């Protein structure tokens, strides 16, 4: 504990104040909208970007920071994370500063079992009482009665849905999340429509009993997990959904038909319709990737385990256990399915669908490490065929616009909040550059490499303290 306190004190000493004006010089600004590098000095004032200036213009700031020709990007946003485990509150809390150390200045919490705690963290971080990324949260997600997931807002009818929506709104959640474990299709659709009627953003899975365009017509803002989009490769998607809803077709048969029918041209035409309806997609590739290659990968020496308690990684066994009986053919099919899902990214991008980079990191999502997994996700976007710029957009400007905060976040432009990451290499050439972080600026406050390393060391020390306390 003493070591943790000392590290925390060191952090306070190492970063500089947000209030003073600061001129960043000798830096290449990555313009994430146009995909170009700008040789500009960046003036920060009052936590915001006051202006971009020609280099060597007379100094106007109280302080100047020479960045040695490095690259400046907007703070990264992870648009799909979960904080879960009622027995893992401290285990999750210690990870919050890591997001900053990994260049991530905002996360969108797509619900877990810690809704009330996450709302507390959101307030504490905003108030400067806790180190962490800005949190957007759905609060409890909507589900049917006796759902598989812990902590859901379970609803049985329209009245309960409306009461739940009132309550979520009163809590000030940032969006509504809906999943399909036990929620009947009709009530699922009504919940989407109600959130939309209240002008709330609404992110969902896709029940087998609903067509993706039925959801779009009801006002869905984003579909979480690109795996659902494979259904659009079937020309009969809405008929299949209707048959499932009517009880004429079982889930296994419906899925078999989707597998059999998949046609890329049919899917691509549907993606253009989806883009026209302004429905965004959060692909979340890394989780499926980790599971599909579990049989060939040894994770026992992963560096990130430094920050994860045994109680946290114990949750990984749930999914590993569910896959234990798979045959060689099933394992091969899992890899093939991953490749087909990943292959949807270029046509989605081409069609104009807004892609949001989200890791789906969660204690229940095996080897999807919080913070680090966003960088893994971006690498998979590029491996799937997107350009580094498109991947970077999915983790910056796209998320900001999606959250209706495009005027305040997402690019390095005058008036926007000074949430910035300084990189050693050019991310437009190689997306792996997002991992080589020289320093972070959050609301104008500078965290140099030593300060970021201090956060990492503090998290590792906190993990050790939790383990020791539990022995
Ligand atoms: Zn998720």
Automatic annotation (TrEMBL):
Classification via Pfam families: Amidohydro_1
Signal peptide: 1-18
SUPFAM superfamilies listed in its UniProt record: Composite domain of metallo-dependent hydrolases (SSF51338), Metallo-dependent hydrolases (SSF51556)
Domain Amidohydrolase-related: 71-246, 345-445
Keyword Hydrolase attached: yes
PANTHER family: ALPHA-D-RIBOSE 1-METHYLPHOSPHONATE 5-TRIPHOSPHATE DIPHOSPHATASE
Annotated protein name in UniProt: Amidohydrolase family protein
